[in-house]
UniProtKB/TrEMBL annotation:
SUPFAM superfamilies: Tubby C-terminal domain-like (SSF54518). Pfam families: LOR. This is LURP1-related protein domain containing protein. InterPro entries: LOR (IPR007612), LOR_sf (IPR038595), Tubby-like_C (IPR025659). Belongs to the LOR family.
Length: 206
């Protein structure tokens, strides 16, 4: 098991979940995650619902907030080769806890060079020791062809894709599936996917 948000979101078997984007006009954007029986597992609210830019909320099936994700701003970030997003969970007393940090390349910075990989660290400083990140994003999210890879083992922990041979709806980029490997925290995975959705200007962005 690899609990990051909570062990209750770790399954002993592989899980395939389906993402359905919500239209901005009707529902304010964001997306809904369902399981194979079409039962809602997670919901993601973005700018269209929250009314705040660079901020997302991952909710459980009952609408309870699991993660608040927001982008770090300011002059320091403007001069950095990365833009940093931070995901926070909350305990019963309302205190926040840093769950993960996601760094995206800052395209406005000329020093970007070859450091164009999106990386994720868990907790305040990551856990790998040798590296200051724990996961990397391989592939290109807008094409629905990317994966979250464990930087220590090189193993894929979650894969975003569109199944071939399915109906027309599933062939649309508004509908795609995510395969989460056994023991991996699904809430963490969808916190990262929600961040990618916003970065690439999709359903969570105004």
């Amino acid at each position: 098991m690899m609990p990051i948000v909570s062990k209750i979101y770790c399954s002993s078997s592989q899980v395939v979940l389906v993402v359905r984007k919500r239209p901005h006009v009707v529902n304010g954007g964001g997306f809904v995650v369902t399981d194979s029986s079409q039962k809602v597992v997670f919901k993601v609210d973005g700018c269209g619902i929250l009314g705040t830019k660079d901020e997302l909320i991952l909710r459980d099936a009952d609408g309870e907030a699991l993660l608040l994700v927001r982008r770090k701003g300011g002059m320091v970030e403007a001069l950095s080769i990365y833009r940093t997003w931070k995901g926070y969970s909350y305990d019963y007393e309302g205190a926040s806890k840093l769950v993960f940090s996601l760094k995206e390349p800052n395209n406005s910075c000329l020093a970007l060079a070859s450091n164009n990989v999106i990386r994720i660290s868990v907790g305040p400083k990551g856990t790998t020791g040798k590296k200051d990140w724990d996961f990397e994003i391989n592939g290109y999210f807008p094409d629905r062809n990317c994966s979250i890879v464990d930087s220590r083992s090189g193993n894929i922990v979650a894969q975003v894709g569109v199944k071939k041979g399915v109906d027309v709806l599933m062939a649309s980029k508004d509908f795609y599936h995510v395969v989460v490997k056994p023991g991996i925290d699904q809430a963490f995975v969808f916190g990262a996917i929600a961040t990618l959705d916003y970065i690439y200007g999709e359903s969570t962005r105004c």
